[in-house]
User: Fold Anoctamin from Crenichthys baileyi.
Amino acid sequence: MNENDILEMDSAPETEDFDDVQLGMIDEEAVYPQEFLPTYQSIKEGTVLNKADQVEYNNKPDSLFFNDGIRRIDFILVYEDEDKKEFEKRHMFQRRKKRREYFEASLMNMGLELEAMPSVLNDNLMYVKVHVPWDVQCTYAEVLHIKVPIDVNTTPFRPSMWSFFNCVTKYFRPNKELITEETDSFTAPFEKDCLDRFRIEKKDNFFTPSMKSRMAYYILSRAPYEIRGNMKKFGITKLLGGGVYKAAYPLHDCRFNVKSTEESCPNERFLLYKEWAHPKNFYKMQPLDLIRKYYGEKIGIYCAWLGFYTFMLALAAVVGLGCFIYGYQMQETSTWSKEVCDPEIGGKIVMCPQCDLCNYWMLNSTCDTSKKLIIFDNFGTLVFAVFMSIWVTVFLEFWKRYQAELEYEWDTVEFLEQEEPPRPEYEAKCIYETTNPVTGIVLILASIVAIIVYRLAVFLSLSLKLKHAGDLKNLEPIKEYVTPQMATSVTAGLISFVVIMILNTLYERVAIWITDFELPRTRTDYENSLTLKMFFFQFVNYYSSCFYIAFVKGKIVGYPGKPVYLLGKYRNEECDPGGCLIELTTQLAIIMGGKAIWNNIQEVLLPWAKNLIFRYCTRSASQKVEPPRWEQDYTLQPFSQLGLFYEYLEMVIQFGFVTLFVASFPLAPVLALINNLFEIRVDAWKITTQFRRFVPEKAQDIGAWQPILQGITILAVATNAMIIAFTSDMIPRLVYYWSFSLYEGHTDHSMKGYINSSLSFFNTSAFSDATMNAQVERPSNITICRYRDFRFPPGHPREYEYNMYYWHVVAAKMAFIIVVEHIVYLTKFILAHVIPDVPYTIKERLKREKYLTQVILHESKLKLVTKHLKPFVEDMSSQMEAGKENEVEVSEC
Assistant:
């Protein structure tokens, strides 16, 4: 059997032909062949038990077997029994019943064994146990190219360069007495004809429960349930969507907090909770091999990536925290910050209004802001930005090596080329009407514009509340109150976060519609295509406000006498008096913090609350027996159809914040590290205790997230260089320090006088009528005000044009970007080639495994051929001997 033996799937959407069920209509064209139904009915009637006969499993609520205690349950189907409905409604669900009966008959015809049991909590529910017999296991293990042991691996393994740390790291590893290491073996794809070559000690345990669940789900996804004309309709997914079944899932092997007393139960869920999900083990490494064995390679590779990313974040967090401490200590010693706060310097500089409804303000009103800015805008930040650009390269290169080791250990090296079957929906004809993706992008841009307008409106309204008199005494800063700029930044950040959360749902639907229209062949292709689209939407959604603050806000504002207006009405928003960098830092802190809090609410509180409500609603006072294992699992939450997509998306978005804008927020790695330490345990607790067991899936790597991470790392170099060049004041300060400080009369390089040189002069009599709003009473005795720019003063032949200092700064910014980018990209290129993607030891072990596989399986096939040819050869030999005897007799005659 191979993937070409799959039935054709109908072209209708999942819910297309279920509307008539609700109306009690029966499709006359639908055919439900009767050849399977008598067998199905006889088996089913012989296995359905009454509640009076349920003593066996009530004494063993964690039993994982059929009622005979021999056949293990590999999958569970749940449906609502139509025969127990009210009489007037019963006829409405007959089509569902016929489809289900034909589907279950098809399953038995394909080799599965079924057993039905009524619920002990809900009289209307029925549970169908599914068992995959040995012969069927062998068949589908070959179809799915499942790799199994052929020989013990005796190749000596070279110790890692980090092995000398084992004396310390052993305290952070899971308890080896509870979670034992598996025997390292060479593996090969299973073949039925070579059973004697595989290490089969016991048939029941040769294929793991997760492998059997994969086989069962593969069959469930391809079993027909109806024939309509020349078309066979099939698949458990469509039956779930149409309400024929309420749930389909593999079983947990025990309760998470109670060890099972069943002899055949490995208690892997209990061990995972104790060593992985329990809060007391937050400092321990994850038991990846057990996670992979219990949940499959796809869950395992995600947990491995999250753990590796968190481990690498520790180094970045230490350096970022050091940079923050350095900046915090500098805020009281910075020369230009002192000048801002000095009553004789900043206290005598009158600044021009920043909007048409704003008044004059004193420079020293930004004293606190300037001190806070020093924490994030200093030379240490430059060093940290370069460090992070190199860090991301090291992170990705070492992750590739680690991933290659996992591919070998978990037998997924050639998964994409050999093992992955096509999706059942692959051959379906798509009739969906998709939404133009441009519409989604337009909505994103509209939300960005709305936030910008909001920022302008709030800034103006708050500014009007600060009434200014006509003398300088009333221009003294009111430090006890929040400035309009700060209030606007915080509230706009919160609004931006809310908009992001609302639009996420819309973007998900648009991305799914487009991907369904493409009809990718395999599930991996489908998820990769969906991932790229979803990340594009989320990239713009999450990062747009940060890019606006960093590279747009305050860049095109003109000067006080000739400001630039947006849409001819709104004056372009200027940066906070302390600069746009502090606003960018505020925005990042709000989005990162808000996102972490919101995700924890979704991941912890919602599943817990749903399960609590469901158990309360299904609780029966008269029922004192403990429900069986399959019914306990039904009360848990189903896993999302998108699988781990949102888990990856959450971490990759965080990775973007940590790398793309780290020059403005050195504490981002620290916050990310703290969040991830909780995230690992929250994911473990959620997966182990609140959700049904996932259908185990194989995965070779993290899929499309790998090139996305590589793209982010490349973009991060450019964004951080541009933030330092265009958003912070670092380059203007460096230019002043090395070039213009001598022109200001200093005998040596110094930052004295920088504030005065960075502010241009403006004659207040040159204000235009548009900027002189009648609602604002401005002091008439102020003739000169200052603004942040490098322009010639009034009265100069080139009045208000850019001066030489401006062009020096522009040249320095461009030179800085080019030099930094080339240095970092060259370093990344060298590191990428110095660090090989696949370790040498893994390459050698792969060669050895391929050689042994060819030798062992070749010998087995050769013996098989010899065995089949032996009767033919013996017959030919006897005929040849008889021919020789005849020749002798003839010669004698």
